[in-house]
Hints:
- Helices cover about 15% and strands about 40% of the residues.
- It starts with 5 loop residues before the first strand and ends with a strand.
Amino acid sequence: MNAIGWVEIPVSDMSRAVKFYNTLFEWNLNELKLGPLSMAIFPVKQGEQGAGGALVKNENYTPSTQGALVYFNTDDVSIPAGRVETAGGKLLRGKIQISPDFGYMALAIDTEGNRIAFHSRQ
Length: 122
């Protein structure tokens, strides 16, 4: 089994965060209200590589640039990285090669103040 089973990214404004991630990845995330908790679950395909996750608004969660860094898999890092600033985020590092064996990455701050990254093989 994979080491990571689920990832939650804290948000302050769910509508703003959903719009940001939908713009980056051309997703259609929708907010789910679960009592005092709000979530927008990322697309997941059973049996595929990677872990599931969601945007989460909860009084006990605070967005941060400190702590864990979530890498989003993509076919080409430059596509979501190129959408970051028009979606309201901040691009910290554009596409760079990690190594020939590990591919490429880019680094950004989302609209909520979380540090996020993108990864691709090409």
